[in-house]
Amino acid sequence: MPSNLGPGPTSLEDVGFFGDERVDGLIKRVTVLEKAKGEMEGKLKASEADLKETKENLKQVEAENVVLKNEVIAMQDQIEDVKAGNNALNEAIDELLVENYDLNEENMTISNANEILQKEIEDLKVKDENKSKQIEMLYAVIEDRLGINVRAAFDDIEIRRAEAQRMEKEQKDAEEAAAALKDKGKGVVVDNEEILGSSSQQEQQQPNVEVNVAEVEVNVENALVPALLFTLVGEPKLVYYSREDSARRIEVERRRLKAKEAKKAQAIEVVDEEEDDEDEEDDDFKDIDDFHESDDDKGDDDDQGGNGGALIVRPPGADNVDDYLNDEHNEEKEDA
């Protein structure tokens, strides 16, 4: 027996036959592993719950993602529309820029032309001032050499022109009135031929009517004569008026012409009214023709009753025409 062996176990219990220490370590390790297993199972359950929740969240995220995709698609469509509108705006802006460029060029051209016109206007103003000075000098020389007032002479010429126009208008109005009276006189003669009943009355009345028409023609001709009787006596002299007097004379002539026109219109209205009254006169003349019997003559047309049987018909409106052609009467009305 070796001598270095120590004292060995003295009993069975002292012999480590079954390895209790190892078993205890294994038991401890198994306990730790079971504990870890429980923890891991708890963690696994928690992980499964988290996974389930994560899956639900993922589903929600997927649904939200679908909505967002649709919104993105709509936004892309809107972006395309905005791009198209932007392109159209860019084209319009390009056109406006081109038009603006053209307008700027036209503005420059107009500005240059305006400057040229302003220079021409200034030159014309200078020329006008020079012409005005020359005209003033010319007027001064004429008035000094000829001894006349140019303004007064011009006003006198205007007055004479107005007077000539007035006389011409009066003559024309008188001729028209004479023509109207001639036509009216012819109508009266025809009516007398229809009105007169017996042959003796026709023979006696026809000359009287013609005499009345001739009187009217003579009156009209006499009215025209004064316009042609102006004769120059002695040497003509210029009568100088002030500017106020000349304006007053021109205004008087205008008023006189206006009054003549109004009187002419009244004369024409009188002639029209006389034509309207012809029917009534025809009825009156018919009553005269139908009256054949009376207490004295018994239908006889001789001269025993002091009546020659002549029926003198005077064209109506002759007095009005004479008054119209009477200058003194017209001047009295104008003064009134």
TrEMBL record:
<feature type="compositionally biased region" description="Basic and acidic residues">
    <location>
        <begin position="326"/>
        <end position="336"/>
    </location>
</feature>
<keyword id="KW-0175">Coiled coil</keyword>
<protein>
    <submittedName>
        <fullName>Uncharacterized protein</fullName>
    </submittedName>
</protein>
<feature type="region of interest" description="Disordered">
    <location>
        <begin position="263"/>
        <end position="336"/>
    </location>
</feature>
<feature type="compositionally biased region" description="Acidic residues">
    <location>
        <begin position="270"/>
        <end position="304"/>
    </location>
</feature>
<feature type="coiled-coil region">
    <location>
        <begin position="37"/>
        <end position="184"/>
    </location>
</feature>
